[in-house]
TrEMBL record:
Molecular functions per Gene Ontology: kinase activity
Annotated spans, Disordered: 308-327
Extent of Basic and acidic residues compositional bias: 308-320
Domain DAGKc: 2-134
Cited Gene3D superfamilies: 2.60.200.40, Probable inorganic polyphosphate/atp-NAD kinase, domain 1
Source domain of life: Bacteria
Taxonomic lineage: Bacteria, Bacillati, Actinomycetota, Actinomycetes, Kitasatosporales
PROSITE patterns reported for this sequence: DAGK
Keywords recorded for this protein, A-Z: ATP-binding, Kinase, Lipid biosynthesis, Lipid metabolism, Nucleotide-binding, Phospholipid biosynthesis, Phospholipid metabolism, Transferase
Family affiliation: Belongs to the diacylglycerol/lipid kinase family.
Cofactor: Mg(2+)
Xref: InterPro entries: ATP-NAD_kinase_N, Diacylglycerol_kinase_cat_dom, Lipid_Phosphate_FormReg, NAD/diacylglycerol_kinase_sf, YegS/DAGK_C
Protein name: Diacylglycerol kinase family protein
Amino acid sequence: MSVPKSVLLVVNPAAGSHSADVTAEALRLVREAGPAVDLLLTRHPGHARALARAATGPGGPDVLVSLGGDGTAHELMTGLAGSPGHPALLVLPGGSGNSLYRELWSDRPWQSVLETALSAPHVRQVDLIRVAETRGTALLGASTGLAAQTLNPARGNAARGRDRYEKALLDALRTGFPPYPGRVTVDGAEVHSGDTVCANVGGGRYRAGRFMACPHSVLDDGLLDVCVAGTALPTPELLRLAREGHHVVREGVVYARGRRVVLERTDGRPLLFEYDGDLVRSGDATRYTLDVVPRALRVLAAGASHRAEISQDRTHETPRKASTQIT
Ligand SMILES: Nc1ncnc2c1ncn2[C@@H]1O[C@H](COP(=O)(O)OP(=O)(O)OP(=O)(O)O)[C@@H](O)[C@H]1O
């Protein structure tokens, strides 16, 4: 991609780490980098999607900058995806978990990311996840069980940033989180059946900013990774190990990869399910079908010279039973 001439900066003022100072700094840095820049603040949930959709039309910007959290990036993605040659999406960390930012840029300071992305832009065409039952699309990932259950409590607690999700997870452990009877199928083969603490599908490696739920996931390999935790591994231990992605080698944790993942609850009760941080409220659904949509979104990401730094963030653990469960 050539150096962008125009940028639309979309800021979510309701996102977890929003500040007027950061917005002003981002605006200044874009101007200093050279492109013409417009700034728009989202006014309500869903607004970012409409802004992104409008940006795909004639006269739209070369780059759409998301200054919000994963929810803002998700909304922008839904407005861009499906429009060939759409403006490239640059994700900056203005939210709480900021998992997508970490996935793409590790923990590099956002100011240097902005400068790099605008002066030497590198476009990566990343996969998306299509959820058949909701007809929705995810970028970061999807999950059932523990992580899905703690989303709403996380929004309500007083903690900020990544602590918000961690506090909700620890609260859930304290009050007793009930596993559910589940089944997970990958490309038609059952990889897990029985008591389930959570099933995570990526997408990205990180969830809640801090946990490497699917540590081997690659954003643009045309495949979905799935990691399922049963009850053999105590849940506090699961959370501790998941910070570095070390849970995947432990007894009771299954890791697999494929183009279609089906997540089910087998006792007839509704399956708690979220994607990109939004809980699905579809009544009594017990099953969700996730298909990869290969290379469907253009994002600005680290080029070759910065990739090494980011890949150091990747775990070196080999998942348990990798030979049979990773295709
Ligand atoms: N003006 C607004 N008022 C209220 N909510 C808004 C507004 N603009 C956007 N939103 C909503 O804010 C929600 C939270 O945004 P976002 O997910 O980006 O931040 P976060 O939850 O703090 O971060 P993360 O998802 O990284 O943990 C989104 O679901 C979005 O729809």
